[in-house]
Design a protein that fits this description.
Blueprint: H1 2-14, H2 29-34, H3 36-52, H4 56-76, H5 81-93, E1 103-104, E2 111-112, H6 121-130, H7 139-154, H8 162-165
Antiparallel strand pairs: 1-2
Amino acid sequence: MSNVINMVNQFNEIFKADQVSSKVQMPTVEEMRDGFGAFMMEEVQELAIAHAENNVVEFFDALCDIIYITAQQAELYGFPMAEGLLAVHAANMSKLDDEGNPIIDPLNGKVKKSSNFVKPEVKLEALLDAKGYVNDEKPVIKEFEEQMEDAQEAGYVRPATDEETS
C-alpha cells in the first residue's frame, strides 16, 4: 500500500491537489457528489460496462482506478490509509474459525464471521485518536453519520441492508 500512497502523493504534488486539511476531515456532501463520489461512480460504471462487454483490460483498468482514487482521497483528507488497511485485513482474517478455516455461506458464497471476529472499527478509531482526530464526543464519526444521512436523502448512496452489515 505504501507504493500506492507514494504514487498518489506524487500525483497530488504535480497536479497541485492540495491536502484539504492537516487533520482527518470528512468530505462534505457536495465534495462527495461533485468530486470523490462522482469520480468513484464513474469508475464503478466503467467496471460494470467492461464486465458486460467482457473486456478484461478495461475491467482491470477500472479496478486499478478505484484503488488509486480511494488512496488519493484518503491522503487528501488526512486518513492513515496504510494503517487502516492493515486493521481491516486483521479483522477480515479474524473471521476464521478455531481451526483456521473460513466459514462460507452456501447461499451466497460470502465469508461469514466466526466467534473469533474482531471488528476493525476499534482499531480504526484508535488510529484516528492517536493522530488527534477523534475525541470523546466522536465528532468525525458524528459528522460522517450526518453526512451519510444527507447523502442517502439526496439519493447519492443507498442504506446498507441487514445482510450487508452482518
